[in-house]
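Our collaborator T.R. sent over the components below with a one-line note: 'Predict the complex.' Nothing else. No constraints on interfaces, no templates requested, no preferences about which chain binds where. So this is a plain run: every listed entity goes in together, and whatever single assembly comes back becomes the starting point for the next discussion.
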Amino acid sequence: MSRSSPLPPEQVLEVADRLQRSIGDRFRDQIVESIYDEAEAISNSVVRQQDAGGVDWEQRIDRLVTSPIFGLPLMLLLLALVFWITIVGSNIPSQWLAQWLFWVEAKGSALFDAMGIPWWITGFLWHGTYRGLAWVISVMLPPMAIFFPLFTFLEDLGYLPRVAFNMDWLFKRAGAHGKQALTMAMGFGCNAAGVVATRVIDSPRERLIAILTNNFVPCNGRFPTLIMLAVVFVAAAFPPAFASLAAAGSVVAIVLVGVVFTLAVSWGLSRTVLRGEPSTFTLELPPYRRPNLTRILYTSFIDRTIFVLWRAITTAAPAGALIWILANIQVRDANLARLIADALDPLGWAIGLDGVILLAYIIAIPANEIVVPTMLMVYMGVGMMVDLPSLSALRTLLVDGNGWTMLTAVNLMLFSLLHNPCATTIMTIWKETHSRKWTMVGALMPLAIAFIVTFLTAGIARLLGLV
Amino acid sequence: MPLRKPSAAACHSCPAHAQMAKMGIQLENFDRVVALAGNPNTGKSTVFNALTGLKQHTGNWPGKTVSRAEGGFILNGVRYKLVDLPGTYSLLSASDDEEVARDFILFGQPDCTIVVVDATSLERNLNLVLQVLEITDHVVVCVNMMDDARRKGMQVDLRKLSRRLGVPAVGTVARTGEGLSELMSTVAGVIEGAIRTNPRRIQPSQEVAAAVATLTPLIEGIVPGTPNARWIAMRLLDGDDRVRRALLSGELAQLLSRQSARSRRPSRKIALEGAQ
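Returned assembly:
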C-alpha cells in the first residue's frame, strides 16, 4: 500500500483479525511467558541476597495469626482488646468534658438571662442546640480519639489482609467474594467508604452482595452509640470489677452479630436473586510494616475523628433546631414532638423501643452519629429539663424518666447495627450501582431486617418474662 | 544514559529540594502530567503523598486506591500534576483496576510514568514494569522500600537494573523521604530529554514478530506519528476490544494530536527561563 492512502481502520482491523486467527490462542500465553522470563532474568541479575541470618519472625507471626486454629480467636481477642482500651480510656475524659461543657451551658444561659434575652432564644440556643452538641462532643470525642488511632495502627501494620485471609472461607461458603472481608473492614470506618471500596471486587454479582451487606458492620458514626449503650447499660448490670470487660464484650458481641448477618444475608442473596459461583482471587499478604506514628495520629485525628465529629455537629445543630420547634409547637394540650412520638409509640413498643427513639431515627437519617443526641433532646425537650453532669445521670434520665430497660438498650444496639444506612451511604450506593432498584434494596432490606429482628427479640424477652 | 549515583539520604540542602514547592490539590494549572503506577502495596500511595504533600491515608493492604487520586508538585518552576493509578499486577487482563491504569497510561498520555516497585520482591514487580515499557518510553522506575531490602540482606544493583530496563531506576524509602528528590529530578530529566530512555521490549516469536511487523505500518497509517504502534499491534493481535474501539472511533488519533500540541506549547516558565 502506498503512504499517501492509508488503509481505513475497518480494513486494518480485518487484517489484524486474520493475523490473530493464524497465530491462534498461543499469543497471550507467549507474551505472558516472555514477560515472566524476562522479569525473572533481570531480577536474578540485579538482586544479590546475602544471608540475613536469624529467625524469620514475620513468617512465624504470620503462621500464628493466619493459622486455622488460632487465627479467628486471636482476631476476636484483638478486637475485644481495642474496644476495652477504648471504653476504659474514654470513661474519665468523657465525664470531664461533660462536666466542663455543661458548666459552660449553665454560665451561658445565666448570662443570657441576666442580659434580658427572651426565654425562647436562651432555650433554643443553650438548652436545645448547645446541649445536643455538648452531648455529641463529650460522648463521642474520647472514644473516637482512642478507637481511631488503634484501628489505623492495625491498618498500617498490615493486619487487615490477614483478617481477610482468615475470613475468606466463610465468605466463600456464603457464595460471596473473599475480598468482601476487606470492604467489610472498611465499613467499620465508614459504610459509604466501604461501598466505594467494593470496586476491588471485579465480579458484578459479588460486588453487589458486598454493597448490599456493607451496612451490617457498625461504622464510626454508630460505634459511639454502641459504646455509650454498652457503658451505660451493660456495664452497669455487672459488678464494677467486670464492668468495662462486660462493656467491651458486648460491643464485640454486637460486631459479631453484624458479621453473622453479613454472612447470612450474603448467603441468602447468592442463593436467590444474585445466584452464582464465588470467583477465585489471589490475595497478597503484604509484609508487616512499622507504622508511622505521626501519620497515624494525624490521620486518625484529622481525617477521622474531626471529620466524623464535624459531620455530627453540623447535622446535630439543625436537628436540634427541628426538635426545639417540634417541642414548642403546641397542638391542643401537647406539643408536636410528643404527639409524633406518641403516634409512633405502639410501633416502637412492638420492637422493644419507644416512639421517641423511632422519631430520633427518622430525624437522624442524614447521619447516624446524632441518634443519641437527638433522642436525648426529645426526651429533655418534652419531659423535664435536667442537667446531665455524668453518665449515671444519663442512666437515671433514661431508666427512671423514660422507662428504659435492658431490652431497650439491647434492641437499640441491634436496631442501630441493622437498620437502614445513612443518607450519605444510600447516595453512594446509588452512585456505585446506578440502579434505583438496588439502591432501594440497599436501603429497605436492612430496615426490614432490623424491624424483624428487634420484634423477635422483644417478643421472646416478653414471653420469657425477662422484662 | 546518564544516571546519578543513588544517594543514601534525602538531600534537604540541594537546590532541587529547596525549589520544590508542594502544590497540594491546586490542579488548574500544570505543565506536565506524571502517572504513578505500581503493584498493590508497594508504597505507591506513600510516594504519592510524599511528593504532593497530601495527607491521604494509606493503609497497608492491597486494593485501597479504588479511583484515581490527583495532586501536584513544583520542581524548578515547572508544575507537575501527579496522577495516582490503582495498584495492579499487570495491564493485560481486564479487571476494572487494570483497565483504569492501562487507559490512563495509553489514552491519558502522561509525560512520564513512574512505576513504583517493591525492592524486596523485584521479580514479581518487574512484570508490570515490562508491560508499561511496552506502552511508553517515558518511564522512571522507583525502587521503593530499599530499607526493607537492606534489612533483609538484599542488595539491589540499581545501575544494572536501569541498564537492563533501558530506563532510569531510582532507589527510595518513601516513608522517610529518602531518594524522592532524586526521583523528581530524574522524572524532570526524562520529560525534558536530558535523560534518554531506550526501553527494553520483549522479543516475541518470529511468527508474532512478523504479524506485528505487518500491522505496525498499517496502524501508523491510521494514527500518524504514534509512539506505540507496536504496542497497539500487539493488543489487536490479542483481541483487545478497548483498543479496537479506540482505533475505529479515531480516539487514538485525536489523543495523539492533542499530545503533540501540548508538547509544542512549553510552559510559560520554561519559555522564560529556558528549558532545563
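Summary for T.R.: Chain B has two domains: 15-192, 206-264.
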